[in-house]
Specification:
- The protein is α/β, with parallel strands linked by helices.
- The chain has a single domain (about 15-305), classed as Alpha-Beta Barrel (TIM Barrel), CATH 3.20.20.70.
- It is about 40% helix and about 15% strand.
- The chain has helices at about 20, 30-45, 65-70, 90-100, 110-120, 125-140, 160-175, 190-205, 220-230, 260-270, 275-290, 300-305; strands at about 15, 50, 55, 85, 105-110, 145-150, 155, 160, 180-185, 210-215, 235-240.
- Helix 6 (about 125-140) runs parallel beside helix 7 (about 160-175).
- The protein is globular and about 50 Å long.
- The relative contact order is 0.16.
- Bound molecules: 3-hydroxy-3-methylglutaryl-coenzyme A and magnesium ion.
- 3-hydroxy-3-methylglutaryl-coenzyme A binds near residues 92, 118, 119 and 149.
């Protein structure tokens, strides 16, 4: 039953990251055809933004080293489905554009420790690496997302000052990114912190309609944080089917907010997503069988136990 609550948007766009953020963190490398089938099933469940893979150095993320083989398998998806891919540098952009990718994402860090661990660069060196990527992607008419990791806390540096996050967000937008995604990479955020950061961004001239949120669920706060963001006006929420996920370069990063948990809450609030929860749950059950382990999603467990 849907019971609306005040100050919430009528519709939310879910940015599905299971095939990228989820599978990049699996110990086993998932066969390319299984990844393609996962993405097809996600699209059939009504997800329209499905992050497909990353064009990063194959030694850094071996789980996604098959990007060149995977991307061409993804033709023929329903109209309107978008397949963003992660690209850290010009080499990655060349690889993505050669395959016809039209939505890319660069991924920066609010902290020096994670910039070093994830990109082998300082924060400013990473921004310098992204600048030509964003410029060339825009010249090629691609949509560009700018991820920012460690927006709330960092496993090496502790709590992250809001001002540091605002500085890098502004730099990414000034560079030409169309949208930002605020990453709580290790899942330590709480709702007041989320609203404080969104307000600080607004004060610095960053409008909420350019900002998405990307919560990991380490401390069980991802849904509460999402609701806080929605109340602030955010309408793009990242989530991962079955709660797959983490980051290989951030110790203590666990799974993302599960898409099933998000959809359950949004539909319960009467917010449209376009997603068929039954088909999505079946997809995540199918994927969990391929991975040989159960999903951490509470909604998925509740719904699949019913059957
Ligand atoms: P580096 O070692 O500094 O690379 O890594 P380099 O620029 O010195 O180049 C070294 C060699 O790598 C060169 O080859 C390049 O051509 C090659 P050589 O000339 O020596 O033969 N190379 C590449 N090959 C293929 N594709 C490429 C590429 N780039 C260079 N794109 C680099 C720098 C950025 C490449 C590396 O650090 C990297 O690949 N990092 C990716 C890490 C990653 O993918 N992390 C996970 C995603 S981020 C995340 O999960 C967080 C997020 O979910 C949000 C959140 O939760 O916070 C988004
Ligand atoms: Mg992530």
């Amino acid at each position: 039953m849907a019971v609306p609550a005040p100050n919430l948007p009528p519709r939310v766009r879910i940015h599905e990251v299971g095939a990228r953020d989820g599978l990049q963190n699996e110990k086993t490398v998932v066969p390319t055809e299984v990844k393609a089938e996962f993405i097809r099933r996600l699209a059939a469940a009504g997800l329209t933004t499905i992050e497909a893979t990353s064009f990063v150095h194959p030694k850094w993320v071996p789980q996604l080293a098959d990007a060149e083989a995977l991307y061409p398998l993804l033709g023929g998806l329903p109209e309107g489905v978008r397949l963003p891919v992660l690209v850290p540098n010009e080499r990655g952009l060349d690889r993505a554009l050669a395959l016809g990718a039209d939505r890319i994402a660069v991924f920066g860090s609010a902290t020096e420790s994670f910039a070093r661990a994830n990109l082998n660069r300082t924060v400013d060196e990473s921004l310098a690496m992204f600048a030509p990527v964003v410029a060339r992607a825009k010249a090629a008419d691609a949509h560009v997302r700018g991820y920012l990791s460690m927006c709330f806390g960092d496993p090496w540096e502790g709590p992250v000052p809001v001002a540091a996050v605002v500085r890098v967000c502004r730099a990414l937008l000034e560079m030409g990114c169309d949208e930002l995604s605020l990453g709580d990479t290790i899942g330590v955020a709480t709702p007041g912190h989320v609203q404080e950061l969104l307000s600080a961004l607004n004060e610095a001239g960053v409008p909420t309609n350019r900002v998405g949120v990307h919560f990991h669920d380490t401390y069980g706060q991802a849904l509460a944080n999402t609701l806080a963001a929605l109340q602030h006006g955010v309408t793009t929420v990242d989530a991962s089917a079955g709660g797959l996920g983490g980051c290989p370069y951030a110790k203590s990063a666990t799974g993302n907010l599960a898409t099933e948990d998000l959809v359950w809450m949004l539909h319960g609030l009467g917010i449209e997503t376009g997603v068929d929860l039954g088909l999505l749950t079946a997809t995540s059950v199918w994927m969990a069988e391929r991975l040989g382990r159960p999903s951490p999603s509470r909604t998925l467990r509740a719904l699949s136990h019913k059957e």
